[in-house]
C-alpha cells in the first residue's frame, strides 16, 4: 500500500536555525473579526527552515528557482544513507566510499546524520554543532554519483556551521558550473523508516528569480 509522508518541517518561529538565518515571523494582516477573512503576513528568508538552495545561492550566474523546470523537483530514484558523526565533525570522502556502488543510479541522495533527537531537545546544539560536508566530500559526491541531481540532509546546512571557513565552499563544489541544474536541500525530516522510499517531490515556494526557498517535501513509500 502506497503511503505519503512529509520529509520536511513546518515553519515555526521557535524552530532551530543557523545563527545568521532568522526564523519565520507571522502576524495578522486581515482578520475575520475586522475584515471578514483571515490573511497572515509572513516574514522569512529564502533559507529559513526546511529549504532548498539553487545554484544562484552561491554562483553569480547560477540557475535561480524559476530557471529550473518542474521535473527538476521530482526524483524517482532516491537513496538514503546513514552517516553517524560527532558534533562539528566534517564529512570526509572515506565516510562516503561505502555508498558509491549503491548510489550509482540515484538521482537524489539523502544523508541521515541522526540529528532528529538533537533538533527536538537541544535546538542550539543542532543549529551550531551539527556535522556537515566539506569541499573534499562535496567534490567526491559530484565525481562518484553521476546521476545525482540533488542532495538532502537532516542538518541545518550542507556546511558545518562551526567550521564555515573550511566548509562553506562545499556549496560551490556542488552548485558550480555553467548551466548546472542542482539542488541542495537542508533541514529535512528523515526520522522515518525510509527503506521503501520510492520517489520524492520537492515543492518550493515559487518566487521569481530567487536563490532558493522554503519548500514542502513529500516522500512516497511502498
Concise overview:
By secondary structure, this protein is α/β, with parallel strands linked by helices. 18% of the residues lie in helices and 27% in strands. The mean pLDDT is 98.
Structural descriptors:
single chain, alpha/beta, nine-stranded mixed sheet, two-stranded antiparallel sheet, 7 helices, 27% strand, globular
Description:
By secondary structure, the protein is an alpha/beta fold. It contains seven helices and 13 strands. The chain has helices spanning 32-35, 93-96, 116-121, 123-129, 135-144, 164-167, 170-175, and strands spanning 3-6, 25-30, 39-43, 51-53, 74-75, 78-82, 90-91, 108-112, 132-133, 150-153, 183-186, 197-204, 212-221. Strands 1, 4, 5, 6, 8, 10, 11, 12 and 13 form a nine-stranded mixed sheet that branches. It is globular, with a radius of gyration of 17 Å. The mean pLDDT is 98.
Amino acid at each position: 500500500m502506497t503511503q505519503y509522508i512529509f520529509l520536511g518541517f513546518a515553519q515555526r518561529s521557535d524552530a532551530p536555525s543557523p545563527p545568521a538565518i532568522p526564523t519565520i515571523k507571522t502576524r495578522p494582516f486581515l482578520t475575520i473579526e475586522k475584515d471578514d477573512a483571515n490573511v497572515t503576513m509572513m516574514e522569512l528568508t529564502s533559507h529559513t527552515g526546511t529549504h532548498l538552495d539553487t545554484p544562484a545561492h552561491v554562483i553569480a550566474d547560477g540557475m535561480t528557482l524559476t530557471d529550473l523546470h518542474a521535473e527538476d523537483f521530482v526524483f524517482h530514484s532516491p537513496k538514503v544513507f546513514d552517516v553517524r558523526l560527532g558534533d562539528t565533525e566534517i564529512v570526509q570522502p572515506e565516510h562516503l566510499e561505502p555508498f558509491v556502488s549503491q548510489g550509482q543510479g540515484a538521482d537524489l541522495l539523502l544523508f541521515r546524520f541522526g540529528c532528529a533527537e538533537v533538533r527536538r531537545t537541544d535546538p542550539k546544539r543542532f543549529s551550531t554543532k551539527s556535522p556537515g560536508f566539506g569541499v573534499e566530500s562535496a567534490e567526491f559526491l559530484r565525481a562518484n554519483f553521476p546521476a545525482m541531481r540533488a542532495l538532502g540532509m537532516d542538518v541545518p546546512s550542507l556546511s558545518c556551521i562551526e567550521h564555515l571557513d573550511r566548509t562553506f565552499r562545499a556549496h560551490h563544489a556542488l552548485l558550480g558550473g555553467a548551466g548546472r541544474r542542482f539542488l541542495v536541500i537542508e533541514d529535512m525530516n528523515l526520522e522515518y523508516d525510509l527503506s521503501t522510499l520510492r520517489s520524492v517531490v520537492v515543492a518550493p515556494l515559487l518566487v521569481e528569480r530567487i536563490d532558493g526557498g522554503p519548500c514542502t517535501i513529500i516522500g512516497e513509500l511502498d
